[in-house]
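Run log // design_07
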């Protein structure tokens, strides 16, 4: 069974113990699901997949000029419905005016992944997929869809990583980018965090170097608990905000147990690890011709950037975002004032959702038909 969207599962996990992170005001709009097949897809690691699949969703209609499209690349283990908090009447993205494309990262269990790819690339033999591999695949998808230019690339978390990579790899292809709760590079502390979460899975004797015959349940539960410890801010835990709208008998032990056993139901261990490796290796400075020079890569960004870190994110600290913003020529730096940590970038609370939608809507209006050549 494929993994459900991570943020949706966080919401569901919270709801099952009685509190709500963000109760939606209306039923979400359902996208049309599609699949795009790439033949002989060569990865940065040098492997060639005979057939690579990208699952994606669409909302609305592409206009005759092919320039009303917005790309929303997925975050960790997410599906094509991962941006419901921005889509619909009264929100930043109106499908009656825009053509919205939500792509799913390699490794989520639906797009090409360790769990669904035949030998010789099945399971632990599936090649490393970088953020650049993902956006290069999506670029080919957009060409097939006749998208000539993007209004914006908008991404949360690993989606933000992809948004930055788009701005560096394809600097003239969009009017602007929006990055929430994500940075242009994964720094040492983030790599260590992710390595600890990988170690939690692989320490299970049933993992068997990735050639397991049954899910390594103890490792998956350990992974979920470690992940949960980084998910929200320290103050969120100190204030016991997990008590919001919860039943009277809620306890911290119940909260932890729920996340332990119901964090990303159905997720495959090799898929989880593959996407963590994608996250770890992210660095726009590794793009040719920058040869590891992150600052030069950031300085090369031509289009406006709306940079929205969460003030309390433990995955992508606001200090990292502030460091990067200093090198981006046309950046609007708007930290999200929230105690909800990393999920603030995906509207973990109603206040977060209002902040995101207002800022993104304003940014899209201001950058419509932005011409990078005229702003050099």
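design_07 sequence
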């Amino acid at each position: 069974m494929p993994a459900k969207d991570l943020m949706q599962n966080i919401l569901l996990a919270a709801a099952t113990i009685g509190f709500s992170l963000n109760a939606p005001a209306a039923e979400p709009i359902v996208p049309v699901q599609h699949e795009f097949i790439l033949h002989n897809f060569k990865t940065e690691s040098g492997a060639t997949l005979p057939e690579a699949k990208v699952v994606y969703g669409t909302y609305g209609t592409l206009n005759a000029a092919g320039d009303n499209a917005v790309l929303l690349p997925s975050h960790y283990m997410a599906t094509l419905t991962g941006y419901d908090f921005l889509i619909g009447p009264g929100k930043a993205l109106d499908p009656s005016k825009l053509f919205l494309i939500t792509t799913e990262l390699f490794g989520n269990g639906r797009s090409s992944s360790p769990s669904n790819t035949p030998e010789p690339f099945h399971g632990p033999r599936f090649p490393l997929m970088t953020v650049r591999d993902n956006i290069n695949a999506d670029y080919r998808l957009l060409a097939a869809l006749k998208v000539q230019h993007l209004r914006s690339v908008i991404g949360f978390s690993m989606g933000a990583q992809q948004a930055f990579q788009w701005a560096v790899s394809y600097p003239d292809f969009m009017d602007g980018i929006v990055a929430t709760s994500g940075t242009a590079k994964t720094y040492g502390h983030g790599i260590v965090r992710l390595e600890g979460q990988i170690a939690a899975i692989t320490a299970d004797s049933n993992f068997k170097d990735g050639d397991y015959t049954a899910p390594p349940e103890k490792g998956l539960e350990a992974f979920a608990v470690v992940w949960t410890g980084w998910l929200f801010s320290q103050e969120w835990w100190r204030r016991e905000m997990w008590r919001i709208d919860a039943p009277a008998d809620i306890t911290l032990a119940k909260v932890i147990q729920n996340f332990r056993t119901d964090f990303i139901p159905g997720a495959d261990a090799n898929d989880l690890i593959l996407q963590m490796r994608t996250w770890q290796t992210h660095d726009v400075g590794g793009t040719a011709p920058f040869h590891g020079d992150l600052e030069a890569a950031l300085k090369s960004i031509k289009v406006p950037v709306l940079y929205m870190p969460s003030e309390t994110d433990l995955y992508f600290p606001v200090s990292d975002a502030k460091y990067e913003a200093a090198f981006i020529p046309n950046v609007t730096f708007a930290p999200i004032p929230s105690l909800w940590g990393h999920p603030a970038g995906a509207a973990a609370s109603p206040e977060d959702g209002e902040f995101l939608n207002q800022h993104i809507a304003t940014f899209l209006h201001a950058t419509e038909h932005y011409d990078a050549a005229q702003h050099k």
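The chain has one domain: 6-375.
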